[in-house]
Write a structure and sequence with these properties.
It contains 16 helices and 14 strands. By secondary structure, it is of the alpha/beta class. The chain has 3 domains: 184 residues, Rossmann fold (3-Layer(aba) Sandwich); 93 residues; 195 residues, P-loop containing nucleotide triphosphate hydrolases (Rossmann fold). Helix 5 crosses helix 6 and helix 12 runs parallel beside helix 14. 31% of the residues are buried. GO terms for molecular function: ATP binding; ATP hydrolysis activity. Belongs to the ABC transporter superfamily. Keywords: ATP-binding, Nucleotide-binding, Repeat.
């Protein structure tokens, strides 16, 4: 089961409730079988090893003593002679080529994630709880996680924004501020159902608003007819055409009837307005993010970037990249692919001028902006508005507010300090400041922008980039995200070939 929803809605909290770390404020949780869980961040000590992570360090030490002839008879009786083989098989299954003595601090974030995933499956639990298992993983790591879950015969609850991984789920559960909704099938089936719900919600809103407006018109017409009758009665009374007692009775009856009708109309109108508000709230929750951006004016034949026989890295004797040449022309979209450690981020630093190439020539010919998961171009101590005006000198206050509203930072939301934003808000603010100005950059460089973002935030980023007509250079392990960008050329960096 895939568990999806906005950041902060409670997905990780729900996993903690399931595994008994915190108690629910109401209701009851019943778990049958053994549960094993993987958290987003693998907490480690400076000397912790793979064996410590698996909880088998003492058992491996016993096998070492037994091999050296130092174990007692009682210890030998307790020895697990299959442990080393099972441990190696578990690590191999997740594509990790390390021994049990390897220190976790010496591994990359992606390697630690793989090791932790192997550890949670090692003791054959009945249920896996996985919190963002593919974060920090390269293409091979993501494929290994998918393969492991496809072969898994127990239950699994997977919190993830990885749409490829979610495609393999038997069901998707979406958490929102309204509660939880379950959808059978994987990601595509969930999205298809959500699109139907959006259309139905929009139709319900239109009908509710039409009914409320129609009732308001009818009540107004009734009130106007009543006023005309009352005016006519008053004129007749002045003319002396009706006994005083009958006039008084009719007046009292009109007042009682009018008051009852007014109360009934108010009650009916309040019910219809409430129905419209409920429908409107549902549409706002489901409504996708749409962005409109000013054109960059990048000509199709203009040279944007050229690399000629570039070598890059931090050690001239052991470059991460060797003999790389390519060019970007016009609004081309290029993805740089490769496993962790192949030099992708290093290459981006060389391209934008943060790192000099070891050899070769880099020619960057157009104004460029870089966005990554840290959003270094934004000042965390100031507001989104102030960052926009700093990055777009000459922009008016009205233009600033209009651009930020396009990226859903309206009114007081534009005055939030960048340091208080979530990951998704941070990236959206970066896009607003870079792409929302009167002169967007002609080249946008993205370095793993979707790490730690929820699905709604990723789709917002995709919407913003779909509206951008400049050149795009992106590094990402999220294949679905890359495919959504309309990539025209891929450059693969393979450390094995160097």
């Amino acid at each position: 089961m895939g568990l999806v929803g906005r950041n902060g809605v409670g997905k990780s909290t729900l996993l903690k409730i399931i595994r008994g770390q915190i108690a629910p404020t109401s209701g009851r949780v019943s778990v049958q079988g053994k549960v094993s869980s993987l958290e987003q961040t693998v907490q480690i000590g400076p000397e912790d090893t793979i064996a410590d992570l698996f909880g088998v360090a003492s058992h491996l030490a016993l096998l070492c003593r037994a091999a050296a002839g130092d174990a007692s008879g009682d210890e030998l009786a307790d020895a697990d002679w299959t442990l080393e083989a099972r441990l190696a098989a578990s690590l191999e299954r997740i594509g990790l080529q390390v021994g049990p003595e390897a220190r976790l601090a010496d591994l990359s974030g992606g390697q630690r994630t793989r090791a932790a995933l192997a550890a949670v499956t090692f003791h054959d639990p009945d249920i896996l709880l996985l919190d963002e298992p593919t974060n920090n993983l390269d293409r091979a790591g993501r494929d290994a996680v998918r393969a492991l879950l496809q072969d898994w015969r127990g239950g699994a609850v997977v919190v993830s924004h990885d749409r490829e991984l979610l495609e393999d789920m038997d069901a998707i559960v979406e958490l929102t501020s309204l509660g939880a909704s379950r959808y059978s099938g994987g990601w595509s089936a969930y999205r298809a159902r959500k699109d139907i719900e959006l259309e139905a919600a929009a139709h319900e809103l239109e009908s509710a608003e039409r009914a409320a407006a129609s009732a308001r018109r009818r009540d107004q017409e009734k009130a106007e007819r009543r006023d005309r009758r009352d005016s006519a009665g008053a004129r007749q009374a002045k003319g002396g055409g009706m006994p005083r007692i009958l006039l008084g009775a009719r007046k009292n009856q009109a007042e009682v009837s009018g008051g009852a009708q007014a109360k009934s109309a108010e009650r009916r109108q309040a019910e219809l307005d409430a129905a419209a508000a409920r429908a409107r709230g549902l549409v706002e929750i489901l409504q996708p993010f749409v962005v409109s951006l000013p054109p960059t004016g990048l000509a199709s034949g203009r040279t944007v970037l050229r690399l000629d026989d570039v070598a890059a890295g931090y050690d001239p004797a052991r470059p991460l990249i060797e003999g790389l040449s390519f060019a970007m022309t016009g609004p081309e979209r290029i993805a740089i692919l490769g496993p962790n450690g192949s030099g992708k981020s290093t290459l981006l630093k060389v391209i934008v001028g943060d790192l000099a190439p070891l050899r070769g020539q880099v020619t960057l010919s157009v104004p460029t902006a870089t966005l990554d998961q840290r959003m270094d171009l934004l000042d965390p101590a100031t507001t989104i508005r102030d960052n926009f005006l700093r990055l777009n000198p000459g922009a008016t206050e009205n233009a600033c507010r209009a651009a930020l509203a396009t990226f859903q930072f309206r009114a007081d939301a534009a005055l939030m300090n960048v340091g208080t934003l979530s990951g998704g808000q941070m990236l959206r603010a970066g896009l607003a400041c870079v792409l929302g100005g009167p002169k967007p950059p002609l080249l946008l460089v993205l370095d793993e922008p979707t790490n730690h973002l929820d699905l709604e935030a990723i789709q917002a980023v995709e919407a913003g980039l779909a509206a951008y007509d400049g050149a795009l250079l992106v590094v990402s392990h999220d294949q679905t995200f890359v495919a959504a960008l309309g990539i025209q050329q891929t450059i693969s960096l393979d450390p094995v070939s160097r």
